[in-house]
């Protein structure tokens, strides 16, 4: 019984750590390479210096999924940060994620 409780505590701690590690601290420097709008249309730096992204060529087809109003706190992998669709594979779009507080590559939805 104690082993099961300990295992459950480890799982919970891991999920909390992954959720907190997913948040991206805002970059406020003037040398930002890419600016994006969050879900409230406020500009933030989504391409800080020191990170190289592929060039923007065109928007990928489809649309971003709706921005969640609440976060589940469960992630199976760390999201891929992006400043534009060109940084995502062709089946994905660069969409704002309120839980990460940054744009990330997400599977597209078609109209």
UniProtKB/TrEMBL annotation:
Signal peptide: 1-21
Any coiled-coil regions, as ranges: none
Domain WAP: 60-106
Membrane among keywords: no
Domain of life per record: Eukaryota
SUPFAM superfamilies on file: Elafin-like (SSF57256)
Keywords: Signal
GO cellular component: extracellular region
Keyword Signal applies: yes
Molecular functions per Gene Ontology: peptidase inhibitor activity
Name of one Pfam family that matches: WAP
Protein name in the entry: Crustin
């Amino acid at each position: 019984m104690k082993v099961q409780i300990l295992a459950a505590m480890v799982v919970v701690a891991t999920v909390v750590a992954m959720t907190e590690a997913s948040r991206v601290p805002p970059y406020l420097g003037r040398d930002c390479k890419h600016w994006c709008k969050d879900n409230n249309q406020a500009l933030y730096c989504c391409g800080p210096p020191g990170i190289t992204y592929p060039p923007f060529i065109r928007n990928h087809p489809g649309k971003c999924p709706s921005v969640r109003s609440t976060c589940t706190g469960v992630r199976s992998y760390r999201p891929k940060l992006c400043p534009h669709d060109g940084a995502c594979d062709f089946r994905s779009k660069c969409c704002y994620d309120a839980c990460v507080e940054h744009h990330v590559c997400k599977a597209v939805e078609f109209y």
